[in-house]
């Protein structure tokens, strides 16, 4: 229970910080440096895979740690999933929606998509949902939903 309360408190703080930061100039936002060599990957599915309409995406991160949004812990971040997005979120500002945020520190999600081709890509964000500098981005994979 205590953990849940801490998590909720961290989420609330994170939301307040994001809101506050959206009101200031992008140039004033703190940008978290990326850890050199850190990589984010989509563990599953793999590029070119065919999947059912409902499937699970597993997120991988190496060289840095996962922390819930709002957690001020160096060398950490949380996952964001881009589904069918042609461009990456702008740098230097909190990410909106899309992408899908995993601010609880989740490392997997279940998606339900229409049949056809879709692309998936991960980008890490810091405690304020801002991409690191430089952004830590996975390869963009293409899958077929049957
Ligand atoms: Cu986020």
- CATH level-4 homologous superfamily: Immunoglobulins
Which spans of ≥5 residues are poorly predicted at pLDDT below 50?
1-24
**What percent strand?**
25-35%
The CATH class designation is Mainly Beta
**Oligomeric description of these chains:** single chain
The ordered H/E elements are HEEEEEEEEE
Descriptive overview:
The chain is α+β, with helices and mostly antiparallel strands and 146 residues long. The chain has one helix at 2-22, and strands at residues 39-44, 50-51, 54-62, 65-66, 76-83, 100-101, 108-112, 116-125, 141-145. The strands form two sheets. Strands 2, 4, 5, 6, 8 and 9 form a six-stranded mixed beta sheet that branches. A three-stranded antiparallel beta sheet has the order 1-3-7, with no helix packed on it. The structure holds copper (II) ion. Copper (II) ion binds next to β5.
List the helices and strands and how they pair.
Elements: H1 2-22, E1 39-44, E2 50-51, E3 54-62, E4 65-66, E5 76-83, E6 100-101, E7 108-112, E8 116-125, E9 141-145
Parallel strand pairs: 2-9, 4-5
Antiparallel strand pairs: 1-3, 3-7, 5-6, 5-8, 8-9
Bound molecules: copper (II) ion (CU).
């Amino acid at each position: 229970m205590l953990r849940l309360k801490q998590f909720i408190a961290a989420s609330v703080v994170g939301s307040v910080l994001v809101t506050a930061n959206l009101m200031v100039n992008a140039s004033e936002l703190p940008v978290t440096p990326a850890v050199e060599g850190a990589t984010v990957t989509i563990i599953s599915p793999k590029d070119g895979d065919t999947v059912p309409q409902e499937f699970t995406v597993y997120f991988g991160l190496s060289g840095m740690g996962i922390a819930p949004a709002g957690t001020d812990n160096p060398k950490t971040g949380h996952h964001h999933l881009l589904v069918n997005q042609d461009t990456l979120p702008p740098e230097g500002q909190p990410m909106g929606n899309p992408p899908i945020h995993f601010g609880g520190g989740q490392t997997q999600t279940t998606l339900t998509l229409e049949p056809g081709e879709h692309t998936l890509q991960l980008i890490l964000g810091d405690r304020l949902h801002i991409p690191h500098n430089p952004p830590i981005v996975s390869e963009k994979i293409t899958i077929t939903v049957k």
